[in-house]
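User: Hey, my collaborator sent me this sequence without any context and asked if I could get a structure. I don't really work with proteins. Can you help?
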Amino acid sequence: MISKGPYLVTGATGFVGSAVVRQLLAIGADVRVLARPGNDRSNLTGLDVDICEGDLLNPNSLVDAVNGCEGLFHVAADYRLWTRGPDSMFRANVDGTRAILRAAINAGVKRAIYTSSVAVLGIDPTGQPSDEETPVSFDDMIGVYKQSKFRAEEAAMHEIIETGLDCVIVNPSTPIGPRDIKPTPTGRLVVEAAAGRMPAYVDTGLNVAHVDDVATGHLLAYEHGVSRRRYILGGDDMSLREILETVAICASVKPPRIRIPRAPIYPLAFCAEQWCKLTGKGEPFATVDGLKMSKKKMYFSSKRAETEIGYQHRSGRDALNDAVEWFRAQGYLNRA
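Assistant: No problem. I've predicted the 3D structure and written it out in structure-token form, which is a compact way to encode the shape of the chain:
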């Protein structure tokens, strides 16, 4: 059983991190969270947590946060499919991971969970669901996010091996559900579809997992996972058409019926990116890297996690329904 702790959770103000915090609190653990000064803490409203202000890129600010903690859940990451400053994403995801793990080592933390992503895993060329051992290399990484998370997992494994830190790696697939306040790129897709603003789709697919199941998987990995081992925390493989149709049903809107080829979208995505760079405002509605990634279906198997740590997941439809209901209740569907 997981003890009372305390446990430090990074990224606790965000989507997956706040779900991990709630799961820890639900079993009676003491929770400490790392939060940057001035960031949005609405996901922590009403939660009995100890907030430590700090920044992953300022190692000195991590000392007090991690001291006295029994365990660490390093969930924080810069998750965007497009950014004006690629270097900042590498610093946050790679240097930040290295800094917090070193702080944990120096503080004598007993065990850590590092939240990686299925984005760093290989895609099975036959179209079958990939697993933790599907071959992959850095050259297979499309876009800054994937590249930075690949290097971040490398950095985490280096620290684990060099220092002997007891650390388990989890690779969530595509978390969906409540409290996606930003929202994430996938959350934005759900919002647009639920608001009836998604007229067409491309032929691709994702593995959809409820964010609360992913959070529970973090605790199971802490309790039962093997150090230095990866565990995919996923859900149901769904085509983009299935995802959009499910969202449409949940939101009582018409689903998109037109499947469009990628080729005509590339120049539009390029222009959208350039406009956002020029104006310094917003994010493009489509990205070149996103279109490249969509060429392959991101289907994954959670069999290892199910067998070794007892991971279970609800249906992708349940995850999408909970997401739509939360976005509706928070007024996201009414925004222009």
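In plain terms: The CA atoms of residues 234 and 325 lie 21 Å apart. You can pass these tokens on to your collaborator as they are.
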